[in-house]
Input
Amino acid sequence: MPGSQVDPRVAGLRSAVSRLRRQLAAHPGDFRDRSVAEEELAALAGMAAAGDLEVSRLRRSLLLVAGAIGSVSALGQGVRELREAVDLFGPSPRV
Output
């Protein structure tokens, strides 16, 4: 909508997800959990686009992405940026 305000946290999350998706797509190596990372990044992109930003779900997706990509050092900066974007939404609620 013209003139509508976008929450800067949502914009940051969209940007971090998009950047990491591009980096992952360009990464030539194959690793076992690549599809997990791709699926969770797609889920994060969908949540950000829909405005469905439940902190516990964001953090779950972040953990899955980090676990899937964790050992690929070339993608480490992108994972850090994603974590920082998710952190802006606050701590995960305690159960």
